[in-house]
Amino acid sequence: MTNLHEVSGSETDGGSNNQERENQSEASHNKSPLLSDPWKPCRQPRAIVKECLLQLRCCLGAVCGMEWYGYAALGILMAFLSFLMDLGVTKLLTAHQWLYTKLEGNSLLQFFCWTLYPSCLCAVTSSFSHNICPFSTGSGIPEVRTMLAGIEMPHYLSLTNLFTKFLGLICTLAAGSTVFLGKVGPLVHLSSMVGDYLSKLCSLIRDNKKDKAAGEMLVVAAAVGVASCFGAPVSGVLFSVEVMSSHFARRHYLPCFFSATCGALTFRLFSVWSGDAETLQALFKTDFPTSLPFYPLEILLFAFLGLLCGAVSCCYLACHRWILQFTKTNPVFIKLLTSEKGLYSGMVAFLLASVTFPHFAGQYMASKYTTKQLLTSLLDSRQWSCQSHNASVHSEPEPLLEWTSSGIPVHLSLAFFLLMKMWMLVLACTLPVPAGYFMPVFVYGAALGRLLGEVVVRVLCSGMTSGQQWVSINPGGYALAGAAALSGAVTHTLSPALLAIELTGQFSHAVPVLLATLLANALARSGHRPSFYDALSISKRLPHLPSLKKACPWLPSTPVGQVLGAKPEQLQKAAGPEEVQHVVNTSSETQIPVVDSHETQILLGFVRRSELLMFLRHSQTETLEKHLDEVCCIHPTSVLLSPHNTVQEALNILIVVGAQTLFVTERGRLVGLITWPEMKNILEDLAAEI
Amino acid sequence: MTNLHEVSGSETDGGSNNQERENQSEASHNKSPLLSDPWKPCRQPRAIVKECLLQLRCCLGAVCGMEWYGYAALGILMAFLSFLMDLGVTKLLTAHQWLYTKLEGNSLLQFFCWTLYPSCLCAVTSSFSHNICPFSTGSGIPEVRTMLAGIEMPHYLSLTNLFTKFLGLICTLAAGSTVFLGKVGPLVHLSSMVGDYLSKLCSLIRDNKKDKAAGEMLVVAAAVGVASCFGAPVSGVLFSVEVMSSHFARRHYLPCFFSATCGALTFRLFSVWSGDAETLQALFKTDFPTSLPFYPLEILLFAFLGLLCGAVSCCYLACHRWILQFTKTNPVFIKLLTSEKGLYSGMVAFLLASVTFPHFAGQYMASKYTTKQLLTSLLDSRQWSCQSHNASVHSEPEPLLEWTSSGIPVHLSLAFFLLMKMWMLVLACTLPVPAGYFMPVFVYGAALGRLLGEVVVRVLCSGMTSGQQWVSINPGGYALAGAAALSGAVTHTLSPALLAIELTGQFSHAVPVLLATLLANALARSGHRPSFYDALSISKRLPHLPSLKKACPWLPSTPVGQVLGAKPEQLQKAAGPEEVQHVVNTSSETQIPVVDSHETQILLGFVRRSELLMFLRHSQTETLEKHLDEVCCIHPTSVLLSPHNTVQEALNILIVVGAQTLFVTERGRLVGLITWPEMKNILEDLAAEI
């Protein structure tokens, strides 16, 4: 889609003249630093370097557009950041584990080591992010979704935020599985920041500047965030499709795939180079049997698991909404969360760590595992609860170790884990630290699926006369489906299904995993309750229409006429210099509407602000007073809205047409105009009403 | 997005009154068949049955919307059709093979058996489809893409077409690997027909009728077509995203996934029930080694393969465009293809079959294999050309049999296959039969990849001192990547990458396959040449804007004002019955624009045709003559276009807003209107210009 203003500008003579003039002044501006600033040192070498760089730009530009280098750089950079983060977190976790092991024998010291380490980390990251950049807390996906819908929020894309979020996230993740938070959401947010920065860089380098590149880069960044976090390109692209508010433009599809593939490839290459893996393979590679992954009848069990996950997700979302409401209304919480963020984070982390202390309740919930180890153990393809019938494969019983270390049956252990982690997870979501909420839900779903799988194996084992053929049932498959279904239901998306497959490399379970995710989604979406991210958006009063729709379904069909701001400044066709001067002084819009006369108010078109300034300059030099339409070109308007159009329609048209200003007319008469900042105000007003 | 007309209708009193009246008449219409037609037999049982059906509808409607049953039914039906087709084709192919084996010893009879069987099938299917429904020939994807862009083409969705295409396709596929055509495209087309039929059924059953459901069903149908053809749901959805002209609406995403999963699940369950497979698994399940699927350095070879496939695709597309042009300009071909379709098809099939006769050139190109066997053999993970080093795995050398049956080395065999199949494939594309062109390209790509893989193995084998560690290279992986890359490059899409993974269930090769497909696409798209389907669209002069754009890049930026049709009939506010009567007689639009007066032409809004008819009825009964605005409600217009908007923008707004009529105004004055039929005319005119 071509930019309307460019097209209309190049068609009319006046417009093209102006553009040429602008280009000339721009060109002279480009040359000036070398020629006109004699005080700058090393003019000769600088000129040579600049020449070389221009040559390089030409060479690069000959292969493909400059934006493609930007996409590749985004993927590679994000993979590097993700790998660096993993490395840092692993080191910090190992240090904690080493200290804890060294204190073996002294329970009190072990308790302090177990609890104070994550508490301190959380307190530090919380204070740090609060003081450096308060926008860096939370997952960031609600904000990214809002930005993808076209609303500009520059403070969420600053480099300070990037720095704070990156360091804060390492600390949060290093607090380990006691705090139990993830990294997907923040990585998507980080990716948006890097993408925004790269797109600015690209548009600096490119000759022809296009302002829409930033929006394109954000869409790509959403895909890259997921892809570089797990090395999963396809689910990254699907996530990008899902995260869009209403329409996914087909022209974004190839850049998304390209950048996500670059990210995933680099991420996996890093793990090869670091010696973690022998070749490029899935992050949580499993060894499910491929000859008979599951019996056809198990499809019914997978469907049941999907419904179960849907029900659990409703419960979890309700708790989450309740605690969001509670922290906003309870005076103690309000005080803690506004002024004493560090203290609050420390306290919550201490509480969570105390509960998971391995000599206390932690022994029943495998608390010694890191999040990664938890997931690996849950995806294990061996049966834990029916050991008599497959004793031969128990030559390496390591993954079971933690789940049965306390001596209680594995079912009870899993059930206890699920029960405790539910409230712990809801509580952890209130922590004012940079953190993702996807991975914990994913692991929780895996535990839920595993429990069902183990129960099924147990039931079939006990009645073995009828179930002789079922001995090869794989509880890991249920864990995989459960993980995808629960995380899909909580976020109201389907990409977790593919993510589960890409994470494990198990394509054999694709259909049951998809089925479970679809059913869980169907249950979670029934009743039009907000998803996890919708609830966060509503709670933060973000101007994101699809989320607001969940809270008030009638909202998007509010007529634009009801929410339009004050009537814009307008000029009549025959305006003289005084009227123009007045409008230039009072209005800040770049496009000023021109009407037939102030009486009829029939909209004729618009003039650009720069042209008005030129008109004023002309009128100062010339003695004969001229009218506006004699000097300036009145550009024809693009699409016109009516006041009866809904807010949703206005937003869709802004997104699709890519226009900067939409005029609203009724019966030919101008009644208002809609720009992106205006739309942001409208949506913020609507959000405040809820 | 809500339908504009409904919203505006329900807001104004006049509109809602009308609607109520319509609803009442509808309700009475629903009841009437039982109450007012005393001549119908068995009134009592019919009433009971109807009561039960209404009850059932209520029960079903309580669970979820009626359209979801439609999506499920679409998936299941398409899987059934696809399975039935496979079954029929297998029977016919087996019969041919049986006859050929029985004639062993008599080369002449074998030759006739080998050549006449496919010739007759092609001749029959060609004549059959020409006589019953000429729209059923070809792949159907260009037409589906056009329909997805909003253009209505009812003759492509008729039940006759469904029937013809289904039977014709079975015959084409039964002609086997000599004619070498596939079934994906036609299955997508069949799916659209079934989807259209189901959406009509759904809107009959539903209480509240919405006309946009048909468009939604078409998007879903595109995904289901691919999903039910191969049991590959995710690539079906990606295909659906790619096949859209400019924007993929997010609300289609869940239905697409749901229906595609239903289709894939049913398709695989059918193969379990029929005894083909023990459980639900990939169609072309492979046994690639999972511990070390490929060495990290092989990534470079995969990238090279991608570029190679891109180059070959350019060559193939050039040949295809040439033959499309040739068949349209050469008088002999024109005559054959217009009047003697059966003869032409028979002749071409005979030629192709003669070349592939196993006692002639066929022995060097494994012509005894069916398309399915070809693909399975090419995806084999064992090395063919370096037998000395892995003799142990050659206990079952069956897949090699055909490729080396003539005694020549496997490289030469593969190279000969590639050389011959290129022109044969291009020739086969001219056959006027229902056929898909995707699968042959996929297999061709697999052969290309296999050739590269075998060459690499051979080179490394000969210099074994340096390549000792490379013995476990898997040429099947190259075949997989080549298949995805070539088919992706030819169609300018990326979904074949995921299709290749879903077909084989080999997630271990996901990243190299994606990389190869991306590079092949980049090479194929450079130079803005049309893709395979674009070339077909252009050749058929279909009103599909993205294809036309490939032929003439300036086309979408033609201003709407230049291509608008005649000025529409309009009414002035104060129109009397005569003027209204005149407009009702001359105009066929459903929405008649109302202007201030014929002099000023300021657009006020529109009235519906039904309201005008009512106005006329009123004016007949009443004595006092009234003006239009006193009786009818003038509905406010929705989005207005300017004549300077481009065709592309007008089309995008039509798609996004979902409006039936867009008015074009300049400075408040009406200059034209754009409806879907009008847009179709505009695009057809543009296509004719090329």
What would your notes on this structure say?
Chain A is mainly alpha-helical and 690 residues long. Among the domains of chain A are: 296-339 and 363-385 and 399-461 and 472-551, Clc chloride channel; 558-689, CBS-domain, CATH 3.10.580.10. The first copy, chain A, is built from 28 helices and seven strands. Chain A has helices at residues 4-11, 13-35, 43-63, 66-102, 107-132, 141-148, 159-174, 184-205, 213-230, 233-243, 253-273, 298-329, 331-339, 341-355, 371-378, 410-428, 438-462, 475-491, 495-504, 510-525, 532-539, 545-551, 560-563, 577-586, 609-621, 628-631, 647-657, 676-689, and strands at 247-249, 571-572, 591-595, 603-608, 640-641, 661-666, 669-675. In chain A, the strands form two sheets. A three-stranded mixed beta sheet of chain A has the order 2-3-4. In chain A, helix 27 (647-657) links the parallel strand 5 (640-641) and strand 6. In chain A, helix 1 (4-11) packs across helix 2 and helix 19 (495-504) packs antiparallel against helix 20. Chain A is elongated. The model of chain A is unreliable at 1-36 and 388-397 (pLDDT under 50). At the A-B interface, helix 1, helix 10, strand 1, helix 11 and helix 19 of A face helix 1, helix 10, strand 1, helix 11 and helix 20 of B. Strand 1 of chain A pairs antiparallel with strand 1 (247-249) of chain B. Chains A, B: It is found in: Membrane. Chains A, B: The chain crosses the membrane at residues 68-89, 162-182, 217-241, 253-274, 294-319, 343-361, 408-429. Chains A, B: This is Chloride channel K. Chains A, B: Residues 1-18 have a biased composition (Polar residues). Chains A, B: Keywords: CBS domain, Chloride, Chloride channel, Ion channel, Ion transport, Membrane, Repeat, Transmembrane, Transmembrane helix, Transport.
